[in-house]
Design brief:
The protein is mainly β and 378 residues long. It is built from two helices and 42 strands. It has a 13-stranded parallel sheet, with helices on one face.
């Protein structure tokens, strides 16, 4: 299959992928896995904490379903794990036993076919996993999935057929990855689970300095009972869903992100806050999205911390330039939408470019209801 090229914006992406890792920290005592070796058998034969080094070359049909605590899996330059398009995983913890503190670094992982909503690497039974400097592509579902205390850093995650990465649990860090062209065949419903990322039931999730583009679906998406979320310093552009969406969740900070040309197909907004409370949005630059910073309130039920209201939200010191849709609150159902404040934002937008409750309005009318008293219009 010939994949479409990855397009890069004017600024440089983070250094990512297997070729970016210098391999200096691989133990000289690592067990070597040659092309053709049974990797699971070698893992079974060695104690927890053993490091393994995949030799350069194409490793067909590798599937490690039973890693041990503290295992490290590293790749020489040119080490490729290829699933052959079969229903299997590369290196995962999905079974009944929790596996802790696994490291996966320096591999190219391709052509795995995990079931929908599962991933080629990781797994929710993995705790404290560190997945860095890998290239993960052409999975039939997700590339990477992690649980509590895990780190996904500086991976190149692209052309996976459902979604780039997912996570669930506490104290997860997603940092410095390039996440591009996932759900590129538009096979999966973008309103369900598809596109760049999706994070569910996380606490103290940090999503920082990622480069997220050309995904069919949302770029960065927290959905269902996330609390203590931080999105910062991400570059998010040309995704068919919102650049950043925080949905039916709780407290979050969304700051200092660059968000361009998103949300032309699913929902709306460069940044979308949907039935979530206690959110701060500041210091972001939004250009050419399907609207600016949008809050939406529907009847979405309740979660771990009570009813999903769109309330206690501050939107300050952002720049928004757009020609379609609006900035503000779309209220489609009864409920508590108190303590919503927009101020000191700068806009490049004209006409009825604002909305509050069910009313579209001009900039003058927006300021007339007390929003952006210190705002600026270009």
């Amino acid at each position: 299959m010939t994949l479409p090229p990855v397009k890069l914006p004017s600024s440089s992406p983070p250094t990512v992928g297997a070729a970016a890792w210098d391999r200096s920290d691989v133990s000289p005592e690592a067990v070597r896995i040659e092309v053709g070796d049974d990797a699971q058998k070698l893992v079974d034969a060695n104690p927890p904490g053993t490091a393994f080094l995949f030799a350069s070359g194409l490793h067909s049909d590798v599937s490690i379903r039973r890693p041990k605590d503290g295992n490290g899996f590293f790749g020489e330059v040119g080490a490729i794990l290829d699933g052959g398009g079969e229903v299997r995983f590369a290196i995962v913890a999905y079974d009944d036993v929790t596996v802790r503190d696994v490291v996966i670094r320096g591999l190219i992982v391709q052509n795995y076919a995990p079931p929908t909503q599962l991933a080629a690497l990781g797994g929710l039974r993995g705790v404290g996993w560190n997945i860095e400097f890998n290239e993960v592509r052409e999975s039939s579902a997700a590339a990477i999935q992690v649980g509590d205390r895990s780190v996904i850093r500086q991976n190149y995650i692209h052309h996976n057929r459902q979604i780039g990465l997912t996570a669930q649990g506490s104290n997860v860090l997603i940092e410095g990855n390039e996440i591009a062209y996932n759900n590129y065949l538009d096979e999966f419903d973008v309103a369900w689970e598809a596109g760049g990322t999706k994070f569910v039931k996380t606490t103290n999730l940090i999503v920082r300095n990622n480069y997220v583009h050309h995904n069919t679906g949302a770029g960065l998406w927290t959905d269902i009972d996330n609390t203590g979320t931080l999105y910062e310093d991400n570059v998010v552009f040309d995704n068919s869903g919102p650049g950043i969406i925080h949905e039916i969740s709780y407290s979050a900070i969304i700051r200092n992100n660059r968000i361009e040309r998103n949300a032309h197909g699913f929902y709306r907004g460069g940044i979308l806050i949907a039935n979530s409370s206690d959110v701060e949005v500041y210091g972001n630059t939004l250009i050419g999205n399907d609207g600016g910073i949008i809050l939406i309130h529907d009847d979405r039920g309740s979660g771990s911390q009570g009813t999903y209201h769109t309330r206690n939200i501050t939107v300050t010191d952002n720049y928004s330039a757009y020609t379609v849709k609006a900035t503000g609150l779309y209220k489609n159902a009864s409920g508590d939408t108190s303590n919503i404040e927009f101020d000191r934002n700068t806009y490049n937008a004209s006409g009825e470019a604002f909305r509050f409750d069910t009313t579209s309005m001009t900039a003058t009318e927006w300021r007339g209801i007390g929003q952006d008293p210190n705002g600026t219009w270009e």
